[in-house]
Amino acid sequence: MHNIEVKPAHSFEDMATMLGPKNPQSSVCWCLSWRLSSTENRSLAGTDRADVVRQLVARDHAPGVLAYSDGQVVGWAGVAPRAELHPIERSRRIPHIDEVPVWSLWCIRVRPGFRKQGVTAALIDGAVRYAQQQGAPIVESYPVDNRGERVDQTMAFVGTRTMFERAGFTQVAETQSVSGGFPRIVMRRMLD
Fold this sequence. Notes:
- The chain is an alpha+beta fold.
- The chain contains 6 helices and 7 strands.
């Protein structure tokens, strides 16, 4: 793969390429399930979800980062202050380690045709760099601890322990949830 560039996600069109449905009326996640309360999340359908994403990309701080190769968008990583992520902030399963205002990196997505080409590593590094530029003291992630076994594609969006270890993260806790048969863990990378 050519050089991968990671930028703050301020392009709605590129977010739509990565997260939106082929049919704009369809209701898909748009990576909002971990950002909104369950009531808000259930109330949004079709283009309402896209409208929320339009608002998010227009803010000063982006809802995450996008990866580009040769000018085309090839990946997405959701990274934001944990306090903005209603289901994570209020989760009984994902423990609060301390009162530090951490940022959470909760979703990684690479377009088909671009997988296994270094995009995931670039996204994690780019998300950490972006959080650091925004003043985050720590970035937290919630990957599966799959012990080298294959992870079902529906659960792969959180990443794996190995991906995050390679990016300098260390395990700080276990969660109480089980994803696709593998435990989820809490990993952190301290920023300076």
